[in-house]
Design brief:
about 200 residues; four-stranded antiparallel β-sheet; 7 helices
Length: about 200
């Protein structure tokens, strides 16, 4: 029996799908669920995008939001934002900030995370990853100091003097030393957010 064989549809008071004609026809049958990108749960997708820049808000995406390049408006001057100290201490436009760090026209994102490789002045892995930013920064300073054969205090001082910060990647182990002016103005969720989700804080 096919659905097409039902000659008319009438309103019936059936409370369970299994009691209707179609439900009886489907009883004891197994339907294979097709696997495609559309079957993926929406929760992680939304989570990846929630802190990405928004189209038309001082810039645009050259493709899908969170999975393409974010191209900020060159004439937009980002303000110093509370909680993001030294995010634009010289009051430069985004075009000037990109030029300052040799960035073409924007930063590529994948799964909601910006790729800061082209501006990173040092990449290390740390463990265990913490929900405390200062703890992660201390570990990253030590790891980079081991790479460079110097004192961790020198790494921390260089960051302070040159306005660099550590970007905590979403894999919760990779740390990239990047310009604070770029890191703060290409919004995203990072490793701290992932770590807090893991212990139920988010």
């Amino acid at each position: 029996m096919s659905v097409a064989s039902f000659k008319e549809v009438t309103e019936i008071s059936i409370k369970r799908f299994a009691d209707c004609p179609l439900g009886k026809m489907a009883e004891h049958k197994t339907f294979e669920k097709p696997e495609s990108e559309y079957d993926a749960p929406l929760g992680p997708v939304i989570e990846n995008l929630k802190n990405c820049p928004i189209e038309g808000n001082n810039g645009h995406w050259d493709g899908e939001r969170g999975n393409s390049k974010w191209i900020p408006d060159q004439d937009y001057t980002p303000p110093e934002v509370k909680g993001r100290t030294r995010s634009n201490p010289e009051g430069l436009t985004m075009g000037q900030l990109l030029d300052k760090y040799g960035i073409d026209d924007g930063i590529v994102y994948k799964d909601g995370e910006p790729d800061f490789n082209e501006v990173s002045k040092g990449t290390v892995e740390i463990e265990p990853f913490s929900t405390e930013r200062t703890d992660n920064f201390d570990k990253a300073d030590m790891a980079l100091a081991n790479q460079k054969d110097c004192d961790p205090k020198e790494v921390a001082q260089w960051r302070k003097d040159n306005n660099y910060t550590w970007h905590e990647c979403k894999d919760m182990k990779t740390m990239q030393k990047v310009p604070n002016e770029i890191h703060a103005n290409f919004t995203h969720s990072g490793g701290i957010s992932e770590a807090k989700k893991g212990i139920g804080e988010l």
